[in-house]
Amino acid sequence: MHDFRKINVGVLGATGTVGQRFITLLADHPFFILHALGASQRSAGKPYPAAVTWKQTKPVPAVVRNLVVRECKPEFFTECEIIFSGLDADVAGPIEESFRLAEFAVFSNAKNYRRDPHVPLIVPLVNSSHMAMIPQQRALHTPPLRKGFILTNANCSTTGVVVPLAALEKTFGPIESCMVTTMQAISGAGYPGLPSLDIMDNVVPYISGEEEKIEWEMLKILGGLTEGDDGNKAFDMHAKQPLRVSAMCNRVPVIEGHTECVSVRFARRPPPSPQQVREALLAYTSDAWTMSCPSAPRHTVFVHEEPDRPQPRLDRDYQAGAGVNVGRVRQCPVLDIKFVVLANNVAIGAATSSILNAELAVCKGII
Ligand SMILES: NC(=O)C1=CN([C@@H]2O[C@H](COP(=O)(O)OP(=O)(O)OC[C@H]3O[C@@H](n4cnc5c(N)ncnc54)[C@H](OP(=O)(O)O)[C@@H]3O)[C@@H](O)[C@H]2O)C=CC1
Ligand SMILES: N[C@@H](CC(=O)OP(=O)(O)O)C(=O)O
């Protein structure tokens, strides 16, 4: 474990589903000190416990009980260096930009900057190397930013798929095709989720914008970084080996934990066997683990052998929801291999990923 000075951090969207998980995970963190909380004007000015509808299984941590919620403006967060954003996407764009321009390191959960060619879209268990884009992002500003940047995590369902796919590509080379069908938990919609009469005893086969996000974000995350002739790194989104992705997204009556059925076809022929795939998933270790990031899971991918696992209620909190669960690895008669993924949408699908991204930035000397 590195010997770092502790860093003051702020959480924007602190009263939301993701914000509450940020607070739970940061309450006693070896690198970070929870220093300031931000939310809307509806909540600003109130002591945190009065502003939030607390829905975590642990009580409101002592470290935030006496914090007063602030408006999400840089001038109210001056003692912080790092900002974690769990803001609603409707407002995240300009607010996160204001913090970047004010020289804060912004680790965002929102979708707003994921497609920006100069913003790293990082799943910390997969592509931390994309942090190499940060100096170029800073240089785009006049004058160049000294410390500020925006770095985003991925959509929670994208995260669940790209972790096993990265493990498989590392061992077997490029994947040509991927079909994914999701069964997404209600908490993915943010508090209060869907009306009970819409989701109880029901499945909703539509989540606005979700399929397009997954189909696009996977290419940026699994793509490489190429050095341009002007020394600028750009994203090479599978230009050489086009990965084709098709996603079908559903909302199901589960509180937390996204389940995803995945089928893949490898470029290499013959493809690997199910047993070879299981071994590659088990052997895969993330940079976050090798760099001793405190929130990194020991098993990046936990492979279940039982025929009826993983299941959200039983498996979503394994390794504090920081790893990804895979089960039912088997031959696919249409593509090559198919399996089931379970990712905790609020942990590795959101807050844990952003915290791991910040831990990696500290371990890499970027902060
Ligand atoms: N839930 C999940 O599983 C995942 C969510 N995400 C993304 O993370 C972000 C947060 O999601 P989630 O926690 O579910 O959303 P919630 O709706 O639960 O929380 C939204 C947060 O944004 C704040 N907010 C709303 N409007 C404003 C404003 N005008 N100014 C400042 N703050 C504002 C709210 O504050 P207030 O309480 O005062 O209204 C609240 O703290 C979203 O972008 C979402 O897409 C990403 C991955 C997974
Ligand atoms: N949209 C996901 C949650 C999420 O990841 O959102 P976004 O891609 O906007 O960060 C869901 O509803 O389950």
From TrEMBL:
It is an enzyme of class 1 (oxidoreductase). Keywords: Amino-acid biosynthesis, Methionine biosynthesis, NADP, Oxidoreductase, Threonine biosynthesis. Transmembrane segments: none annotated. It comes from the Eukaryota. One of its GO terms (molecular function) is protein dimerization activity. GO terms for biological process: lysine biosynthetic process via diaminopimelate; methionine biosynthetic process; threonine biosynthetic process. Residues 8-134 form the Semialdehyde dehydrogenase NAD-binding domain. CDD domains: ASADH_C_arch_fung_like, ScASADH_like_N. Pathway: Amino-acid biosynthesis; L-methionine biosynthesis via de novo pathway; L-homoserine from L-aspartate: step 2/3; Amino-acid biosynthesis; L-threonine biosynthesis; L-threonine from L-aspartate: step 2/5. It catalyses: L-aspartate 4-semialdehyde + phosphate + NADP(+) = 4-phospho-L-aspartate + NADPH + H(+). InterPro entries: ASADH-related (IPR051823), Asp-semialdehyde_DH_CS (IPR000319), Asp_semi-ald_DH_pep-lack (IPR005676), NAD(P)-bd_dom_sf (IPR036291), Semialdehyde_DH_NAD-bd (IPR000534), Semialdhyde_DH_dimer_dom (IPR012280). Catalyzes the NADPH-dependent formation of L-aspartate 4-semialdehyde (L-ASA) by the reductive dephosphorylation of 4-phospho-L-aspartate. Mediates the second step in the biosynthesis of amino acids that derive from aspartate (the aspartate family of amino acids), including methioinine and threonine, the latter of which is a precursor to isoleucine. This is Aspartate-semialdehyde dehydrogenase. It comes from Postia placenta MAD-698-R-SB12.
